[in-house]
Amino acid sequence: MAKELTPEQLMERAQQLVSNRMDSIRELAESRSILDQAHAEHAEKIAAIERETAAEIATAERANAAAFEAAKRAGWSDEELKKIGFTGAAKKPRTRKTAPRSPRVAAPVESAPSEPEATAHAVPALAASHVSAPAEYAHTQ
């Protein structure tokens, strides 16, 4: 006959199973944190490179426009420069002027719920803000 386990032994076995599962969640959470940090760092690097590149291109465009104008002042016509293969100074995209915005009228402020109510609703909302989306929705780029 099999030896029956005590309630303490049963609880210990259950605790071990839960502990193993929690270890995998801890590892997953740490891995996700590293992934999120990598995405953030690379986004910052990409933005910095785009700013630097845009500045370099703008400088080159200004130099090209100045050289094109210098060639015209030296007696070359637009048509002659075009026949040679110069299509003209790079043209910058036009910017559209927008109508001025009308002033916004502030919406009336509703009265806040009493503190116990506010706390009761804020705690689940706070907890929900730390829940990650399922993997199929996370980090799609």
In short:
63% of the residues lie in helices and 0% in strands. The chain contains 3 helices and no strands.
Give the arrangement of secondary structure elements:
Elements: H1 7-73, H2 78-84, H3 115-129
Helix content: 55-70%
**What is the ordering of alpha helices and beta strands?**
HHH
Report how far the terminal alpha carbons are from each other.
60 Å
Low-confidence stretches: 115-141
**Average predicted confidence as pLDDT:** 77
Shape: elongated
Number of helices: 3
Structural class determined from secondary elements: mainly alpha
Q: C-alpha Rg, in Å?
A: 33 Å
The share of residues in extended strands comes to: under 5%
Biggest beta sheet summary: none
Please give a structural write-up.
With 141 residues, this protein is mostly helical. The chain is built from three helices and no strands. It has helices spanning 7-73, 78-84, 115-129. The chain is elongated and about 105 Å long. 0% of the residues are buried.
